[in-house]
Amino acid sequence: MTAIDPTAHLTAEQIEELGRELDAIRDEVIASRGEKDAAYIRTVISAQRKLELVSRGVLLFSFFPPAWLLGTAGLSVAKIMDNMEIGHNILHGQWDWMRDPKIHSTTWEWDHVSPADQWKHSHNELHHTYTNVIGKDNDLGYGIMRVDEDQKWHPFHLGQPLWNFLNACFFEYGIAAYDLELGKNLHKRRRNTPEFRARAKAVGRKIRKQVLKDYVIHPLLSGPSFLTTLAATFTANLVRNIWTHSVIMCGHFPEGVQTFERRSIKGETRGQWYLRQMMGSANISGSRAMHFMTGNLSHQIEHHLFPDLPSNRYAEVAVKVRALFEKYELEYVTGPLPKQVFSAWRKVFRLSLPNKKPKVDAPDRDQELVAA
Amino acid sequence: MTSAALRSRAWKLLEMVTTPLLPSDYLDLVSPLRAGADLRGRIEAVHPETADAATIVIRPGRGWRGHTAGQYVRIGADVDGRRLWRAYSITSPTNRQDGRVTITVKAIPDGKVSNHLVRRAKPGTLVQLDQPTGDFVLPEAKPAKVLYLTAGSGITPVMGMLRDIDFDDVVMVHSAPQPQDVIFRNELHDLVAAKKLRLTEVHTDTDGVLDIARLDELVPDWAERETWACGPAGLLDAAEEFWSERGVRERLHTERFRPGIVAAGDGGEVTFSATGKTVEADGATPLLDIGEEAGVLMPSGCRMGICFGCVTPLKAGAVRDLRTGEITEAEPGVLIQTCVSAAAGPCDIER
Ligand code: FES
Hints:
The complex is a heterodimer.
Chain A: H1 12-32, H2 35-59, H3 65-91, H4 116-129, H5 160-169, H6 171-179, H7 188-191, H8 194-221, H9 226-252, H10 270-280, H11 288-293, H12 300-305, H13 314-327, H14 337-350, H15 365-371
Chain B: H1 3-18, H2 23-30, E1 40-50, E2 53-60, E3 72-79, E4 82-89, E5 101-106, H3 112-120, E6 126-129, E7 145-151, H4 155-164, E8 169-176, H5 185-193, E9 198-203, H6 204-207, H7 215-218, E10 226-230, H8 233-245, E11 252-255, E12 268-272, E13 277-281, H9 287-293, E14 311-321, E15 327-329, E16 335-337, E17 341-349
Bound molecules: FE2/S2 (inorganic) cluster.
FE2/S2 (inorganic) cluster is lined by residues 300-303, 305-310, 337, 339 of chain B.
């Protein structure tokens, strides 16, 4: 629904051909999944557990400032690993093919206040199917922000930089509320359905467990380091929340990313679906460590094309996907983290105000083509 | 408070410490074979037996309850990153001092797990285990006269029995393609030399497949013997017929290894076992649609294979992934995405 449709130069046949080429990339990875990939995720999981264990151990002595720093840093990284490279990807079913019941989308639970099954519904199902379709994909602005010029402005949006900042700090709670569709369910009638009540209860239970662990049990175990451990876990959660929020903002918000109208996806073909994922996502460039810490969501475009491929393969897939972008003359939106975060935030600020000038009409591509 | 109650309180507290993981997730890092862990074993050695068979020495976890001679164990091995389960007879005696058990595996052509175990398994690797089971075992009272009728790797449960018990009068008729294919050949010949066993080897490459009627000549008193037979289906079918015809069917105990191989076809009869519905499906319609059409409540989400909101256990039969053409066969614990899978022959979906 942007002024100029960046895919207008593609014919219907080209779009289907693009779909077939993407399917071929997918099949290649599926056929070559094996021992190395399994070893990868097992190593990451075991490293995460050891790091968390050691960090919590160090925090027992957190009254000593260097121990506080070390433990907090370790715990922050462990929590990020749990949520990003491990939790997000396992819950996508990326590792289900291993048939290991302990590393499976149906059994995994993560260090997050949103219960895994609720998150799977809102994320895997709604967001990934309806990527960037306004009104269907709640990830767009999380229901609290205006993310597109075409959305109607309301004075409420003046505050959206603040809402976004608060959402970043308490991101896991934001996600839990969002998975519950809290906004929609504020009406009393909806709130009282047994279905909603059961889900709200599950979230409550999960929050209780997480809070008890981080803010009561572990500080108590630390004895004399009670307060410093409390501060450490709070900080680790804050760091994890701000980090994941930043990474996720970079996935669909930066300038150049397209949004779509509800009616544009009616009767969508496989090729068109792929195309929407390509135009609706943005990557983050950087080192291998950077990709790892984002849970490979730095390869957001590839992840949206193939959400169930193992994350460790996105880097190699990206090379081929990028070549297709070039072949079909499409814009591959990518950039280093600071640039992408800045770009996303700038959009949040810009759209908190009403549109500056009346929208220009899209130039008539058909006419251009005829003229050419 | 009793000590059991105390322990369960302590465990609850520990669970609060490790949530959302379980204490066992951390304990598994250091002690995967401890008491109370999921049952696993560690491969400690692999000894070749013949060109295509090997004995795997496994140290089972502390929860192992022990076996009876002749029983088998299901083993879950990670082959090319994917966990596959197969059953193998236990070949070690029940009183082995070091607490280890052995299975003896023959690599079958295209057998994923057997080839992996025989040729690629490395000492130190963990495998998943079930408790041993099976009723191909000796009765409490030792029979006076025994006949073992075996072929190929059908000798493995029998070897477990021979190593476990001293019989007074035991005869074995064993078939294998060539002498060097006879698993445990040296050990069998040692038993023969010690007069503990009478053995007839049938080498099928030169002698042809054993004609069961030859038993009258090979083991004239076969009908008086308590018989245990294990081998390919052809041999067992023939034996069952032979014993039935002579009216001594109750003397024959058989063990079949592999249930029939699933023949992957195109479409088939789909059973939704939890609902008790059966419908005919073609090979192109997703099972999700088939189920919904039949009025079965199917979990679903994106309907295009990306959200994993439709995964359901496949209890029997085979399905085809509509995107890649890949066939998935039913095995315990196998889940399929019903929105992108179609029937590849008759199958049973747990819904
Ligand atoms: S319904 Fe989404 S994967 Fe099957």
